[in-house]
Amino acid sequence: xxxxxxxxxxxxxAQTHDGGTxxxxxxxxxxxxxxxxxxxxxxxxxxxxxxxLLHRGGKMAIQATVPVRNREDLSLAYTPGVxxxxxxxxxEPELVHDYTWKSQVVAVVTDGTAVLGxxxxxxxxxxxxxxxxxxxxxxxxxxxxxxxALATTDADEIVxxxxxxxxxFGGVNLEDISAPRCFEIERKLQERLDxxxxxxxxxxxxxxxxxxxxxxxxxxNRSLGQLRxxxxxxxxxxxxxxxxxxxxxxGDVAVCDRxxxxxxxRDEHMTDVKRELASFTNKAGLxxxxxAALDGAxxxxxxxGGTVPEEAVAKMAKDALIFxxxxxxxxxxxxVAHKYAAVVATGRSDYPNQINNVLAFPGIFAGxxxxxxTRITEGMxxxxxxxxxxxxxxxxxxxxxxxxxxxxxxxPAVTSAxxxxxxxxxxxxx
Length: 430
Description:
By secondary structure, the chain is α/β, with parallel strands linked by helices. The strands form 3 sheets. A 6-stranded mixed β-sheet has the order 9-8-7-10-11-12. A 4-stranded parallel β-sheet has the order 4-3-5-6. A two-stranded antiparallel ribbon has the order 1-2. The chain has helices at about 30-35, 45-50, 50-55, 70-75, 80-90, 95-100, 125-140, 155-165, 180-190, 200-220, 235-250, 270-280, 290-295, 310-315, 335-340, 360-370, 380-390, 410-425; strands spanning about 10-15, 20-25, 105-110, 145-150, 170-175, 195-200, 230, 250-255, 260, 300, 320-325, 340-345. Helix 7 (about 125-140) links the parallel strand 3 (about 105-110) and strand 4 (about 145-150). It is globular. The protein is built from 18 helices and 12 strands.
């Protein structure tokens, strides 16, 4: 967070869990904290582990953007000067965007039920991830963000809580909330709030996947309309990827869960979400297990975990595109995928073509906040994917269908495209 008048703590920069950077205090304040594991619960492993060393005391802090050096500064930043601003906002509520941080800050909200690959670990245990998300917002999009971990898993309680907090924020990023509750929570919040609500596990993944697939198709001289895709995983990410691919004009897409292909004629393990999936996917009417769907398929997208048999991969179409994104173990190991695919992508940072949400969510929120959008539309997501894909440009190759998170062109391109799309779709307020 920016600081115009307060002496910052000296800091060191280190890489975060999903590709960003963070700062850890190294000055006198850091010395007072002690070493990780020095307390009664500590241990030698924590003392030596660099992850614990980096996280000691948290990964973020709030700093003032104005100085408070004397009585005059205090009288302007707080009473009596602040009363003028409060009264003006009370008379004209829209001024809150000009005279507070509201339009520059996002709430990162979780209930800790679907944290990374850890599952339901609870609110407190989710905080290191939420802090990481917040610093990625700042690092890659210039957007301030506040981690908020809620001590409830009840969908209506989460919605009511976020609605009550909403006056303090310009947007809400839902994070690591398990399906199918995440769908209900996002929908209800969108209905009740006039600020952007975005479930990153769904839409961030979908935007980056579409961008990479656009470039992979171009590299192999095909259009999206010529591709038949198979998605392994019918949860939050699988649903959103299927939806955005259909919106973008994919030839066909079938989604598979543990019971096989999700189709309208299937009765077993069909939730409302899966019935909705069946209504706009699998035009070919395929039935059976994942292996049946992969026979002759052009694209595999994995957001489920597990392992796909090599024999099934071998039956995919020529020049297949394999996006095996489970972490830390892709559904199809890259060594196997490269035997049969023209392009391979994963969710890991140690292989080329990482499908990383940090490529999307900072710029999407920056663009939405820039124009004070009331919501994030499908058109804004499609615009973000197209802008992200275009950054690759002349660098396009089998090992570069998506840019690096550290490519400085990414956030400005996505921000500009999202802001323009918001204006075009009539959801911008400036």
